[in-house]
Amino acid sequence: MAGGPDKDEIIARIQQREQEQSLLFSLCESLAPVTTRREFHDVVSNVVKSTIGFSHFSICIEDGSQNGYRLQYHSTPAEYTKHKTTLFTDSFAIFESALNSPEPAVLSKNDAAKAPGLPSFLKDALQSYAASIVSVALSSKYCKGVAFFGFGRGDEPGRNTLRLIKMLSLQLGITFTNILLLEKAIPGIMIPEPEIHDTPQAADMGIIGRSAAMQQVRSLITLVSESNSGVLILGESGTGKELVAKAIHDNSPRSTQRLIKVNCAAIPANLLESELFGHEKGSFTGAIAQKKGKFEQANKGTLFLDEIGEMPMELQVKLLRALQEKEIQRIGSNGSIKVDTRIIAATNRDLQEEVKKGNFRADLYYRLNVFAIEVPALRERTEDIPDLAKFFIHRYAARNKKPLKTIAVKALNTLKVYPWPGNVRELEHALERAFLLAPDKVIKEVQITSNKDIAAPGNSIKPWYEFEKEYILTVLKFCNGKISGTSGAATLLEMPPTTLKSKMERLGIKKRHYSAGQ
């Protein structure tokens, strides 16, 4: 007798299907009420992307009156702007193939090179960041079209992802058709201007929140993205400054080029110059080969300098020269190299105060501070906590392949009154722990700092550095004083051990403050 699937395998398959159904229900629940392109963009960027893991998503709709297809949506607004007026008339093969196939079709980079009439926006994706493209039909009573999902190298979709895309395609088609109908598009043409380009938006996952403060951040991102101006992002640790930098890059004309990130506080001062500008072979002990610095790597793209306030004074001079002259010089070289690199810097320090103290060059400060964006602390936008909580919980469910959970109103109210000294990063960690510890489908409790640490109305408000010190001490005690390693405080705080040690020194945190028995 031939052996069939055993009991455990059958149970595993059932659980897999239940999980897929749970994810699908959650995705459809998020898409169903959407009526505008802006809302559609938010759901795609913040919910669908975190579940499916694509690097590119676009929709083409048939233009019946012109006998072709037009790009109606792209997850990168700059790409939409670039291709939105193109009528794709020689790409029928790829569109008809998707429309006539009952299953999503996967097109590898090698196959794409041989495919006739590949649309220009897909060529751009495959040349820049996508290793494969998945196409799936979007059919409805009023229009027909195709959705494309791009996946980066190493993130190619598996069988489960393809099945989820297939199941989701029906809701995607319904939702997008409703948007087109509500925009009163002309029958047969359907080319309404996308609301996400008329209204300030941020295309990056994680720019979440409906508060006035976050709407202002989005407005500033939109204003500065199309230019090449330098940007200085200000805000406390954990507020999401890196996400703002990524949103600026993703919405800029440089979005198809690289975004290179450098944490100035995480690299020892004697190595930071080489990291930024590169070095020639033999220029110093250990320089066994020529190395391109981050400026060269980010040529034509964007260089994000995080923790710029920690940069040593002697290196600030060289950075200023690079910004002024638009050229750099590798260590050990007499020649200069021209670079076309946009600079976005970020800091949690008051740079004006650092200039007064002599810790930061005034000329570099004014060069960097062409356009400033201040990211608000979470305690200043508590109305965004429900949206953030929903996003994080959804992401944990997808990442850990667990059924989706909801959060009880009481637990949510607790989150709203806590001051969050660690900002969104602290909220994320608290919710992840609560998600993993919750025994059923409802998160009833989120473990955070005791209520006695929360300033009651009428009590004096603590300065930020006291909250930061208390938070770091709490994490150090939780990690039994361990700083480095996978179970160390630096890992939990998502910062290099060198950065954590620097903060501890600045805040006066000694070992006796967090050692056992304290």
UniProtKB/TrEMBL annotation:
List the Gene Ontology MF annotations in alphabetical order.
ATP binding; DNA binding
Quick check: keyword Oxidoreductase in the entry?
Answer: no
The source's superkingdom equals: Bacteria
Please report the stretch or stretches of sequence annotated as the Sigma-54 factor interaction domain: 207-436
Do you know which Gene3D superfamilies this protein is assigned to? Answer: 1.10.8.60, 3.30.450.40, Homeodomain-like, P-loop containing nucleotide triphosphate hydrolases
Query: Which terms are listed as keywords in the entry?
Result: ATP-binding, DNA-binding, Nucleotide-binding, Transcription, Transcription regulation
Q: What is this protein called?
A: Fis family transcriptional regulator
Organism of origin is: Flavobacterium album
